[in-house]
Input
Amino acid sequence: MHQDNTDQIKSRYALILLDSAILFEYLDDSWQVCPINGEKSNSLRHDTAAASIAEELDIHVNATARLRDIELTVIYDKNASSQIPHLSASLFKLQSENWQLLAWQFINRSLINSGSISHQDNTKYDIEYLSQDILPFIDSMAFGQAQYNKVPVEYNEKDIENPDAVAIKHEKLDAAVASNRELQDEVIRLQHQTNALQGISMQKILTFMPAIYQNFWHIVKPSDIGLLIGSYDIPAIPSPFPEPTIDTIHIMKKQFLALPKQDQRQIIEFCQQLTYPLTIRQEFKNLVV
Output
């Protein structure tokens, strides 16, 4: 199962996170299931399941550059969203530089708008559907704008006699391109989220999070923070953590405003990605909301 890809062209993989996790590898011009631990699909019961699959993929690739020289597409639905921060941290540690994150609902909508399929129950897609329809469609979407500009719409004699048929073909093509743009916007948004998680330093978290949020370390585990930012170091936080005084909070606010704009933006973006039931202190509400 192990292979060294250092002298080969870049390998391509796709990790689909729906009701379960399925890893695909692009081989011989087709998408094929890449079993993990001998299984075609793996449970997503734990939030770190996808991160563990990334580590198994690293073992499978068995390259000195870790995952740096592979292309990975991650597709997830809302039920698997809790997997993403842990997966992102794992890929960061494994030196992955060529991966993209796509939301399932946008893929599904784009495929329907393209006219390739009719609306279906997207909770019941099987491996054959994913490998033969979904993944090839994503491949084609990468070239959607180029196809729109370069590939002429084909007509036949019946089309010439029926202008409505020509209009329908144009409408379908326009819908596919619009869906592609929407999909690309979603990719950019999600990549910004990933960059925010990976870019912030542990020191900034230790310094500002307890000042920005009430009882921050009572709600967020130090081990979670390590995973979120891709750090091997787990901060040692005393329990219970003493809440800062109002004077300290005002000082921290001044220090925050004195930071370079880029550092302020980094902290704000990190705060916006947190899904914990946190309460922002009144002093910071107009800064990070």
Q: What stands out?
A: The longest helix spans residues 163-199. Residues 1-8, 143-161 have pLDDT under 50 and may be disordered.
